C-alpha cells in the first residue's frame, strides 16, 4: 500500500490517492480528469471511490470524468452535499473561472466521524470544519498520513473568508482533531508540500500561542 500526489489545475490543487492491490482511493480530483483516467488505465488501476475533503471548485473539477469512467461512489460531508452542483456554494463563480459543477451530487454522504474500511484500507474520518463547514480530514494510521484538504498547510492554515468559513472553528478543528494525532503523522495538504504534525506544532506561526 502506498500514497501518491499530483498537483492539478490552475491552482495546483493536490490530488492524492492510496493504492492497494490495483485499487485506488482517490482524494480531491480537482482538474485534469482525462490525465488521471489515462494514468490509472495505463497502470492497470481501478478507482474504487472518490473521497472529497470538501467541495470547493478547485477540488472537484475532475469528479465527473473519473466517476463516469470507473462507476465509483463519491463521498462528501452532509454539510456540503449541495455544493457539487451549485457554483455559488463551491466558489467557482467568485473567481472568474466559469461555473465548475458536477452533474450530480455525492452518492455517499458522510454524516458523522467514523472509521471506514474501503478496499482493505482503513480511514478515520475527522470532521475538521472552518475552511468550509463540511471539511473533513482522512487519517490513515497504517500509512501514517492525514489528508487534510485546506485545513492545515506547511506553516499555514486554510483561508476562512469564503462561504461558511470561520477562523474560530478552524483553529478549534486544528487543535482538537489534527494536533492530537501522532507528531510524526505526515500532513497531506490541499496545496503545497507535505509537512508533519510535530513540525507544525513547533513552527507554524498561526498555531503557536493559540
TrEMBL record:
Keywords: Hydrolase, Metal-binding, Zinc. The keyword Metal-binding applies. Its cofactor is Zn(2+). It comes from the Bacteria. GO terms for molecular function: hydrolase activity; metal ion binding. Residues 12-191 form the Metallo-beta-lactamase domain. This is MBL fold metallo-hydrolase.
